[in-house]
Amino acid sequence: MIHKKIALLAFAFTITFNCVAQQTPAAKQQKSILIINSTTHVGDGTILSNCAVGFKNGKIDLVSNATTVNKSNYEIVIDAKGKDLYPGFIAPNSTLGLVEIDAVKSSDDESEIGTYNPHVRSLIAYTADSKVVETVRPNGILMAQITPRGGLISGTSSIVQLDAWHWSDAVVKENDGIHMDFPSSFRRSGSWFEPGTIEANKDYSNQIKDLNSFLANAKVYNATTSKERNIVLEATKGLFTGEQTLFIHANEEKQMIDAIELAKSNGINKIAIVGGYEAYKIGAYLKENKVGVLLRRVHDMPENDDDDIDLPYKLAYLLTEQGVVVGLENSGSHERMATRNLPFLAGTCVAYGLDKEKALQLITSNTAKILGIDSFCGTITVGKDATLFLSEGDALDMRTNKLTEAYIQGRSISLETHQTRLNDRYKAKFNQK
Prior knowledge:
Blueprint: H1 2-19, E1 33-41, E2 47-56, E3 59-65, E4 76-79, E5 84-87, E6 89-94, H2 131-136, E7 141-146, E8 153-161, H3 167-170, E9 171-181, E10 186-190, E11 195-200, H4 204-223, H5 231-234, H6 237-241, E12 245-250, H7 253-265, E13 271-275, H8 283-288, E14 292-295, H9 311-321, E15 326-328, H10 335-338, H11 342-351, H12 356-361, H13 365-371, E16 388-391, E17 403-408, E18 411-412, H14 418-429
């Protein structure tokens, strides 16, 4: 028995040691930088050829034509001729840094017990030096919304930049929103390999009543002075003041309408849908109510027998055509490791009808708008954070998404990962270039 305990401790130590990333976060920007002669994808649908982009103290202070810029105003000049410059990609509804190894319970902090957990803050569980986090940066993902899971109200998310020592210096917007996993109006039995029947959720009405009761109590609590402090209800205050967004995780047409009406009836006006598989059926309603959609992973199979086989791929196009603000998220199976594929999800949307620059907006400016951070990121614009990267080609295509430089708030970050180190190691062993 003692030997088994020693073996388990040794195994745990090995896992802990291996989970520590080797990257040292970049130091604060000291020298001004000018990138010239690039093809700049602003992130708002605009492309600027032969462009010059300058930044100082972490902020963009110049976007102009490269032929007219005074290069002597900058200490470092990078000639990016033949390269493409992009704003940093943003991964919303992500559990990056909350789970390191799925099979090791002690490394899993994505959910908390209980049904109503608005007071659970995912930020303080975020592991900034996760090995998984460092693997997404080489594909251009430089920011993420760290989001909890579980319960009807899962908790509070925060937005981080992905090159930091600790959660406290990673955060760019703390407690940006509260996440509600709205009940489904029906239930499916079976599994993906052996589908069962679809039945109405008999508890649906009662579940909505319970949610309404919770939100009504929270509204009253936050509008009055109570002698007894209730941290659960207190955590919802931002929903009623407009400081936070209510992110409703829902996919069905009826489910989304019911959820939005429930929120509005309780005085919550900043609302976004996460998932939104059937959102294309209610595009006009979403636009009228100014509800954005963080669309579920588009690399997926259709949900229903009578859906078009390519429906998941063209959902972004269908919603954009109706004037809905759409972003892309990548939750689901292997979601943390698959975060690196976010730009290629946008690329798939191009293949199914969406203009390439509009597809870029799905993971830059549109996502920034939905998350409420578009005042300082999401586009390459004077005054915003210098969170951007250079690619040898089209960053939405896995064949040409090859980053040469990346910056977060003006800091030149490393694109090396444990995977690139292993690649270099074995190339050296076999004398390969």
